Task: structure prediction
Amino acid sequence: MIPHVVAARSRSRSAATWFVALTIFGLLAVVEPACAQSMSAGSGIYSVKADWLQVGAMPLGRDALHSGSVGVMADMDHWVVDLGWLRAARALSTVQGGYLTIDRRLDWGNALVLPGLSLFGGSAEASRDTTGYNWTAASGTGTGHVARYTHSRAMSFGGGASLAIEYPSRSTVAVRASVAQWMFSGQPLTNDRQRTLAGAGLTVRFGGRPDASRLRVEPTRRGDDR
Result:
């Protein structure tokens, strides 16, 4: 296929992916679900979370740390600020560095839904078979390829759209599942800039004041107040 046609189609798919992601985020951020509860959870609540994000890219194909993230989240009533470290590993490339995510907080029953937008800054590195060669046996009955990889590394910046769902398993611990679509810059990632990261993890909450709307008040019966 003609190279410039391939590039045009790639840009078209990329634009469509981002349009869909941003549209979903906008709808979730503006329109509160009809059956959702109050989104106020009290200010000053902090959380530590860790996610394994290699789902969808298994097996990795090399002996390396899998994709994942760790972060600290601050609850600001309707919004959650998430600051941490992200790693996106693939068979021949790695992107890792710091990220900042702003999530919209939506309480839905006992679950917490977090659509968000993110910024990233860090490094990207990749290996490419740039000097490999094909061979043919002297008898003409066998062929093959000898790969010769070159390695490159550069600074990388990026952005992404994400959706996470948390469900409490204990009073301060929640299990979470998340999916995010990222786009990264950097010369090592030429023609391979998109990463879809999906996986699961845990969130541990601490600090803050309780949400009055979630406190359960038992009615006082006569004779019990003596």
